[in-house]
Amino acid sequence: MTTIQTADLSRWYGEVVGVNGVTFDSDAPILGLLGPNGAGKSTFLNLLTGQLKPSSGQLRVLGETPWGHRPLQARLGFVPETDTFWEWMSGLEFVTRLTRLHGFAPAEAAERARQALHDVQLQEDAWQRRLGTYSRGMRQKAKLAQAIAHEPDMLILDEPLTGADPVSRRHINELVRAKAAAGVHVVFSSHILHEVEALTHDIAVLSRGRLVARGKVEDIRALMDERPMRVRLEVSEPRTLAGELIDMPGVVAVHFGPSATALEVETQDVEAFYRRVPQACLDHDLHLTHVDAADTDLESLFDYLFEGRGGAEG
Amino acid sequence: MTAAPSWWSSSLQLADLGVRQTLRQKILIGVGLALLFAIGLATAIRVGNGDEIPENVQAVQLFIMTPVVAPLVALLLGTNALASEREGGTLTYLFTRPIPRAAAVIGKGVAAIIVADIAVALGVVAAWLAGGAPDTNVAGATLALVLETTALTGVFVLLGTIVARSLYLGLVYIALFEGVLGNTIVARAGTTITYHARRLLSEWSANALIGNDFPLIYDGSVTTSVLVLLVVPVASLAAAAWWVEKREYGLKDRPNED
Fold first, then answer.
1. Beta carbons of A251 and A245 less than 8 angstroms apart
2. Which end of chain B has fewer surrounding CB within 10 Å, N or C?
3. Residues forming a β-bridge with A190
4. Residue stretches of chain A with pLDDT short of 50
5. Are B150 and B136 in contact (CB under 8 A)?
6. How many angstroms from the chain centroid is the CA of residue A42?
7. Model pLDDT, residue B88
């Protein structure tokens, strides 16, 4: 079953783009939504949960249009990214109250809340404590508990691991895997690749509101390998070194600055580049003071995908 | 999976949540200060007059509640009703449940009205106890002020739902519309909530001076004033509920939190 269908889905906030022309289908048991801060992940998840209305395009979740669709909302469980609670409530009251809003009688809601808190492995002695006294990991678990207590068909988790300690992360990951194994569809967002990899290989990458890649994590890894890397150097005579490097296989571009001794090289063969630089410095008696890989982080990959491969599906 | 809760059930649950939430908020300090002002003034008047409490002094006590204390209490609690959830980010928990969004507005609005009414009623009684009330019908006066508070809180729930700086706008509304218009432009006095509250106060408080204070504007019927004070909060909550039901309330202003 196709759980998420989008066609040219867009959502703007005035002139600010939240999600822009996103088209993809997913039937993955666990779908990871990867992207940097501001990529449009939360906007996309808020569209899935029916809290936002698309500006244009089509969106279907479990075969239904989410906006204003209360029967669909009964089938969804949502963990928001924001770390906000009614701080005065106990964890148990928090989950019980929200479960009651799914139509359960008070006693059954309380029972389901206890089960959910148990499932997320929140320590029982904390259930009656005020949420305001919880650690970040415990708060994440409480949010997760309110999302699963009514046994939804789909779990939508916005940055569920943010702020969680390693033990809590393991618990949350185990729970998500168990839910997926039990047939619950899971969609979760993260800006950290290894968080996504720990749960699924099926991902959609968003950058600046656009879907810039869709497929397996391995595809993203391959993209990281194939894209040019930028290396910054500080050297006594940058133009001399540039002359040596510009004809090297794999070197795509050379830029000078911002200082008089700075040089930035884009290369697709970093290992060969690192072997060649010391030799070139020795040959020309150059004084090399600094070498730094400028873009090993994921943010630069998102930029690369957005600028060079924007909209492509992998 | 079970049937979604009824509109009525979810509104009641959210009203209960709203009352408990309000009782734990700092906004109650402002409410308490407004009530203390009335009680303090009543006490000062009593101390100044000894055991003889003239009728005009009781009228002053009532008038402090009508244009100042009740509107301030209604303003603080009404504008805070949904705004506290919106600004606190907890609306997302409510709006991802299979309940009408309007239920959140009605529930939280009713909660604000309940707390405001209880606060004002306690304030009236406390001011009377502190100031002395040999001749005035306290129950009648309290009822009139509770109806006023209900109407004003409804208006401020609506204001707090549809605009961001509702507290300041509400203060302007109290000062200019309820204050200036209701007290100086006699022909328009019937459009203000405090006018109708005073109309009921003059009828129910058994204090003749209140009825004589602004003789020109106290010519409407009691029934009309009661109806106005009942229809205004219902219409205000309905308008706020409609506003939220049709809009992406609470998330629209936050595009960059992804």
1. yes
2. N
3. A34
4. 310-314
5. no
6. 10
7. 85
Contacts of A197 (CB under 8 A, 6+ apart): A217
Q: What is the mean pLDDT of residues B51-69?
A: 65
Could you tell me the residue ranges of all domains in chain B?
Answer: 7-245
pLDDT number for residue B56: 56
Predicted confidence (pLDDT) per residue in A15-67, tens digit: 888 999 999 999 999 999 998 888 899 999 999 999 999 999 999 999 999 99
| Nearest by CB: A82 against B20, B89, B98 | B89
Whichever domain contains A37, its CATH number is 3.40.50.300
Instruction: Tell whether A180 and A237 lie within a shared domain.
Output: no
Q: Which of A314, A147, A18, A132 is nearest to B97 (CA)?
A: A147
pTM summary value: 0.82
> Could you tell me if A27 and A53 lie in one domain?
yes
DSSP B217: G
Largest CA distance in chain A: 82
Rounded Cα gap, residues B169 and B249, in angstroms:
20
- Residues of chain B contacting A102 with CB distance shorter than 8 Å: 2, 4-5, 97-98
Higher-scoring residue by pLDDT: B38, B235: B235
Pairwise CA distance, residues A42 & A48, whole Å: 10
Between the two ends of chain A, the Cα-to-Cα distance in Å is 21
Q: Does residue B87 carry a pLDDT above 90?
A: no
Cβ distance of A71 and B98 shorter than 8 Å: yes
Query: Which residues of B lie closer than 8 Å to A, measured between beta carbons?
Result: 1-5, 9-10, 13, 17, 20-21, 24, 88-90, 92-100, 248, 250-253, 255-258
Number of separate domains in chain A: 2
Nearest to A77 by CA among A205, A185, A193, A202: A185
Could you tell me if B112 and B81 are in contact, meaning their C-beta atoms sit under 8 angstroms apart? Answer: yes
Task: Give Cα separations from A99 to A48, A112, A212, B212 (angstroms).
Answer: 20, 8, 37, 56
Residues B4, A40: C-beta atoms closer than 8 Å = no
Domain, as residue range, for A128: 4-223
Between chains, do B99 and A151 touch, taking CB under 8 Å as contact? no
**Which bin fits A207, alpha (ψ -120 to 50), beta or left (φ > 0)?**
beta
Residues of A (42-101) whose Cβ lies below 8 Å from B: 42-43, 46, 49-53, 70-71, 73-76, 78, 80-82, 84-86, 88, 97-98, 100-101
Residue A131 falls inside a structural domain? yes
The values of phi and psi at residue A178, to 5°, are -65, -40
CA A94 to CA A147: how far, in whole Å?
Answer: 11
- The model's pLDDT over B237-254, given as tens digits with 9 standing for 90+, comes to 999 999 998 888 876 444
Quick one: A104 and A213 in the same domain? yes
